[in-house]
Structures are given as C-alpha cells and as structure tokens.
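4.2 Preliminary Data

To establish feasibility before requesting continued support, the project team ran the inverse folding procedure on a target of 76 residues. The structure was first converted into the token representation described in Section 3, and no sequence information of any kind was made available to the design step. The complete token record follows.
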C-alpha cells in the first residue's frame, strides 16, 4: 500500500500546472499592453503577442509596435 500513496503524491502537483497545460513549470510572465493598444483601447485578442527576452515575458501590441512596455526593449 506504500506504492499507492506514492502514486497519489506524484499525480497531485502544484496548482499552476492547471494554468499551464503545456508542461511548463514556469507560468509565462504577462507584461501588459503596448502604448498603442492602450490608447486605442482595443481588446487584447486583436493585439499581437511579442516576446521580450529581457523581461522573459510576453506583452501585447499592434504590428508597428516593437518596444516592450515594461522595459522599452526593442530587440525581442
Ligand atoms: Zn521587456
């Protein structure tokens, strides 16, 4: 019966695993919307996700936007 206990312990993981279904232990950092998206007030679904290597996270903006709203990084 010890083996059954171990199995149960292995299946129950951190609650984050429900939020990140792709097997990543680290939830993606969300850096927010770019200035354009804020000004226009468009929903996030119409914005494009951009990866910022400096912040290690994703921010959302329109095609012409290239600067991370969190740190100003323009190089992805
Ligand atoms: Zn950044």
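Position-by-position output of the design step:
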């Amino acid at each position: 019966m010890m083996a059954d206990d171990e199995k149960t312990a292995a299946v129950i993981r951190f609650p984050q695993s429900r939020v990140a279904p792709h097997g990543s232990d680290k939830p993606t950092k969300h850096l927010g919307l770019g200035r354009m998206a804020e000004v226009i007030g468009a929903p996030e679904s119409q914005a494009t996700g951009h990866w910022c290597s400096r912040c290690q996270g994703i921010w959302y903006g329109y095609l012409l936007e290239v600067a991370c709203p969190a740190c100003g990084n323009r190089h992805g």
